[in-house]
Design a protein that fits this description.
The chain has one helix and nine strands. It is mainly beta. It has one domain: Sandwich (Immunoglobulin-like), CATH 2.60.40.2020. One of its GO terms (molecular function) is cysteine-type endopeptidase inhibitor activity.
């Protein structure tokens, strides 16, 4: 029960970055941040986290978590959320790159790519 409370508190404190309007995010060493992007899986397209070559940054789920829209309108887009974590290898001043690809699971090439610059900082995140 304590672990669940800790995890929920950690998620609540993580900064959320809207990738529809931003291509930058910030993260604390050993901390996590949330990347959010508009998504409409009813079209077959979803955003996927492209694995990083760095041991400094990781993602909880490469497919993210889908958050349904507030409307019941069929085909309305929702949001995909990716929780990224920075390992203890991260230090203040590191600039890491996260890549998301928009594609259908059965197709080999994405139709869109988002590159996100993630700054590691010791400052408090908003």
């Amino acid at each position: 029960m304590k672990l669940l409370a800790f995890l929920l508190a950690s998620i609540a404190l993580a900064a959320v970055y809207n990738l529809d309007v931003a291509s930058n995010a910030r993260i604390n060493p050993g901390g996590s941040s949330i990347l959010e992007v508009t998504s409409n899986p009813s079209t077959g397209y979803m955003w996927y986290f492209v694995p990083s070559n760095s041991a400094k940054i990781s993602v909880d789920d490469p497919r993210g978590a889908f958050i349904a829209p507030a409307t019941e309108l069929a085909g309305a887009p929702g949001k995909q959320r990716f929780t990224i974590s920075c390992s203890q290898l991260c230090v203040e001043g590191d600039i890491l790159e996260v890549i998301l690809a928009l594609q259908r699971p059965w197709e080999q090439a994405p139709i869109d790519i988002k590159k996100v610059s993630v700054e590691v900082t010791n400052d408090q995140l908003d």
